[in-house]
Amino acid sequence: MAEQVFGFYMPAVNLMGIGAAREIGGRMKSYGKKKALIVTDAGLHQFGVADQIAAYVEEAGLSAAIFPGAEPNPTDHNVEAGLAVYEQEQCDCIISLGGGSSHDCAKGIGLVAANGGRIHDYEGVDRSDKPMVTLLAINTTSGTASEMTRFCIITDSSRHVKMAIVDKHVTPTVSINDPLLTVKKPAGLTAATGMDALTHAVEAYVSTGATPITDACALQAIRLISRNLRQAVANGEDLVARENMSYAQFLAGMAFNNASLGYVHAIAHQFGGIYNLPHGVCNAILLPHVERFNLIAKADRFADIAEALGENIEGLPLREAAEKALDAIVALSADVGIPSGFRELGAKEEDIELLAVNAMNDACALTNPRKASLEEIKDIIRAAY
Fold it and tell me: Of 178, 243, 170, whose CA–CA distance to 24 is shortest?
C-alpha cells in the first residue's frame, strides 16, 4: 500500500438534543465573545426564530445583530452583504441559524472577515491562512450537516458556478442540533434534506477516501434514515423521528467531512449553480443514476448499503445484493415525494455539455470510486432528465 495519511475533522463542541439551542448564550460567553452576527434566511427571520435565538444571547448578557440575507443557494453577493453588516455592527463572532444555506453563507463571511480578500480567493482546498472568526452553528434542518463540516459552497454569480471551498478553517467552533427547531419544517423540505443526508452517507461509504471510522458513521446514518425519514415526512411533529434524523444527518456529516463525496455532488452543484434548484432535490434525483454507474467498482459496499437500508440480501449473489441498494434508494425517494427527473424542474438538455464539463472540474469528483469520461458524465445527466 502506498503511504497515505487520513485526517478526521469536526467541531470541538457538538450539542445534541431537545432544548440544545438554549445553550447558545452560555457557549458564546465561554469563548469571551460580546456581540454576534446571526446569519439566517428571510423565512426564519420572518417567523421569529432569529429573534428567539437573539433573546437567548441577550439572556446571557450579550448582544446580537441579525443578517437575514442567506439565500437558498448563497451567493458571493450574500457573503459581501453579510460581511458589511458584521463590520458595521462591530461583531466579534457569528451565529449561523438554518440549514446549509445559512451555515455556508456564515462560513463565507467568517472566512473573509478573518483572512481578507474575496470569497472567490478561497475556492479549492485549504486556501486560507487563518481560522475564520468564531462560528456557532445552530441547525434547523436534518440534511446538509454544514453545521459541522469543513465544506462551504458559495455560488459565483458571474460564472453561475457553485464554488466548493474545502478548508479546515471553516469548521464551526460549536455545532448545535435541537430537534425542536426542525418540527415546523414542511414535508418537502424534510424529504429533500433527508435525501441529502442519505447521499452524503452513501457517497462517503463508497468514496476512495473512506476509512473504518467514516464507514461506521455512514452505515449508521443510512440505517437511521431508512427507519425515520418516511415518518418525519409523514408527521413533522414526530419528535422521535426528528431526533433520529438529526443524529443521522450529523453522522453522515462526520462521514463525508472526512471521506469526501463523489459525482452526485459534483453534478448537483452544477444544477444548483445554473438553475438555482434545491441542493437536496438535485442529489436525490442523481443518486441512483450515479451509483448505478459506480456499482461495479464497489459491489460489496453497495451490498452493505442495501442491508443498512433494510433489504434482505441473505443468500443473494453479490451483484443482486448490490442492486437492491439502488432499488431501495429509488423506493425511498418516491415515497417521500422527490421529483423523478430534472426535466420537470425546468432543466434544459442543451445545457448538458456545460453541466458535465463543470462537474468534471468539481472538487467532489476526486474521490468518486469509478472514474468517468466526459461522455459518461453526460450519459448520467441524460438518464437523470
Answer: 178
